[in-house]
Structure formats: C-alpha cells, structure tokens
Amino acid sequence: MTHFDEEAKKWDDIPVRAERARAVAEAIREQLPLTPSTSALEYGCGTGLLSFALQPYLGSITLADSSTGMLEVLRDKIAASGAKNMQPVRLDLASDPLPAEKYDLIYLLMTLHHIPDTATLLRKFHALLHPGGHLCIADLDKEDGSFHDYEFVGHLGFERKALEKTLQQAGFAEIRYTTPFAMQKNGRTYPLFLAIAERPAHA
Description:
With about 200 residues, the protein is an alpha/beta fold. The protein has helices at about 5, 15-30, 50-55, 70-80, 120-130, 160-170; strands at about 40-45, 60-65, 85-90, 105-110, 130-140, 175-185, 190-200. The chain has a single domain (about 5-90, about 100-130, about 155-180), classed as Vaccinia Virus protein VP39 (Rossmann fold). The longest helix has 17 residues, at about 15-30.
C-alpha cells in the first residue's frame, strides 16, 4: 500500500486541497476556452478535486491515477455526484502503454513533482494531445525540502525556466506561467505555479 492509498479516505478532509483545486480551475478557465466538446485527461487525479471543479465546463473527462485507494474514493464521489462525463482509470505512464485516445486538454495538480522522469512524461503528454491541444501543470515552485512532512522522494518543486526548457524539448510551445495559489504550511508560504503549454497545431 502506498502513501496515497493510505491517505485516500481522508484526503478531502483538508480544506486547502479543495481551495487550491478551485483556484487552479479558475485560472485554467480564465486562460483557455473550455467547451462541452473539450475532451480532457487529468493525470494523477487523486480524488478528482480539480476535475470536479472543471467538470461543468468540459466534455468527457478521463481521470487517471496509479493509486487504487484514490480511485476507490473517486468512483464513490462520481457516483454520488451523478456526473455522466467522468471516467476513472488506473494508469501509470511510467510503465503502462500510451492510451489510444487523444485529448484536447491534459491537466495535473501537484503530481509532476512525484514523477522521477519528467522529460519522458512530458513527451508522452505531447503524444496524447490533439494538435492545438493544451497541457496545464500546477505544481510547486522550487522549495527547500520543507514542504513534505513524510519521507519524500521526488522533485523539490521546479524552477520555471528549467521546466519551460523541458516543455520546449518535449515539443510544446506558447508556454506561459501564472501563480494562482499559495499554500501556508508550518509558518511558510509555498507558491503554486500554473504552466500552460500548447502542442502546436502543425506538430
């Protein structure tokens, strides 16, 4: 059982998680034209907080995670909500083959810093997007290692310029950043960036 399997049932009990999901959803909606025909993939969806905030503004949403515990909670939430356009799937792009489906929008919230090989994952996202589609990454700015209060193995946030370069190398263009949210934890402030990148229409 992973850390996220253990945390799943009480994940939504911490109010800041829903608060940051709403802030990121609002920032995405402000910058991208979402329509009922927009097909979306949330990668590392957890309990689906970000997708539930975006659900009224999108068409089909595939919610992917590798944690069975998170997916169990998510399925219950979808059933309780009555949402008809949300489909949970177990997916780990580090080991599973690429899905056949393509998407207009891929988004992830506080997921990328858990991925060891970010460059390969970004290339896979590029392959999963329709030309002209968008990738939205919400994650931590570079931090000093104090954010996680358990034994964490991953990236201590990201330098924006370095991530921009990695996105460009993966084939993305028109990369822009905003700061939709900041988390307060243990007397510190941890800004959250939103990077939006486009798979060019010709690529």
